């Protein structure tokens, strides 16, 4: 281990200082990066359920939808082009998250956020004025590139500006902003669907420019993090900034640790290769498995396609969009429950309870739909029956929102030691975006061929992820990041990989910063 600062296991270092209003304000502006991500997640489903949008870009889908009585309901929205419109954004985010890691490292988090916001702004404008499908897709690619950069840079920025004690809460604030973005997008769709002609969907897509401008302009005026400054050899500036954001002159201890941590991370030539080392096996596995399983809950079937799903079960456009507003609200409100309980009850209990609740809710939703539509997809769902389906979808969304939603980002961020953190974080973002892309692309054809069984498919994944957490994910609540290796060392399975032979016993490295 490359000459890092060490402390004895069991002793937690407390740095002096508090959360100053300056640091809080900077974090709030940065977390708007989550808002643009969320807005994207929520907006596409709504516009694809608007007739004016479909008739302009996807007339065949509209034609199929208008003949619902004698056509298979499960296949109404099965169009490769239509799913590409939704999914391409996440493919672009997947690609950009590979480069984002080295850009955030070399140019700093601030410049990455400004760049991400600008690219996103370009995408929003292209989409708002789109004249053909190509423009729509190109606009979505720009949005995706922006999302990839901000999903890498914002969590790091927050982690570095926040005092250590409240890092977890601030990390969840990023997820919180994602859910706010989704909710706002559903509300906007509900409002704009009343507007005649093309203006409605143009406003929905174009309004993405608002959070993009806030992030770009805000990030431009934001200070760089002390960590970034140290990496760019601006040591005096870094000291001044640390004093300012901690509200104290007593910053020597933290400053020295930042410098040591920075040297240590620079000593690692290839963090990706380092991550393949045996002692990092649990982190490597978690960096891929947690975000992948988060997406295999099927959450984005609801987040992207809620209005389309509600139309499939027989709601009109307005009722579908209203139901999406309701699921968006449940998502937002339930995330608060996570904020309030995650440090009290721990991560595992939320993961396990959430997994069981999601499984039951998905099975009920699948059964309710299958009962009426059978395997032919022909049938009629009465209003009250459809309301029951919406209620169970909300129960599913609530469970996700207090478990796999925030924890799917929080747990990875707290288990990576400094020397592999940038690499592992970028794998987490990439895996998340990759599966988000896959689900967005395959949901409509899968619904068409698996029919109501699609909900059982996701339920099966929820069983798998719950069993996985039970056996393989140790509790990380209240454990300082620098002591995390001890958790693996005492775990029945991971102890095979992480042990006293490859981890310094009694001493662990300080990894108080994210780089
Ligand atoms: C996921 C998104 C999802 C959102 C829903 C996030 O944690 O990464 O894919 O749409 O939660 O709130």
TrEMBL record:
It is found in: Membrane. PROSITE patterns: MFS (PS50850), SUGAR_TRANSPORT_1 (PS00216), SUGAR_TRANSPORT_2 (PS00217). Residues 26-477 form the Major facilitator superfamily (MFS) profile domain. Pfam families: Sugar_tr. GO terms for molecular function: monosaccharide transmembrane transporter activity; symporter activity. Keywords: Membrane, Sugar transport, Symport, Transmembrane, Transmembrane helix, Transport. It is a multi-pass membrane protein. One of its GO terms (cellular component) is membrane. Its main location: membrane. The chain crosses the membrane at residues 21-39, 80-99, 111-131, 137-158, 170-188, 200-222, 284-308, 320-342, 349-373, 385-411, 423-443, 455-473. It comes from the Eukaryota. InterPro entries: MFS_dom, MFS_STP/MST-like_plant, MFS_sugar_transport-like, STP/PLT_plant, Sugar/inositol_transpt, Sugar_transporter_CS. Belongs to the major facilitator superfamily. Sugar transporter (TC 2.A.1.1) family. This is Major facilitator superfamily (MFS) profile domain-containing protein. It comes from Zingiber officinale (Ginger).
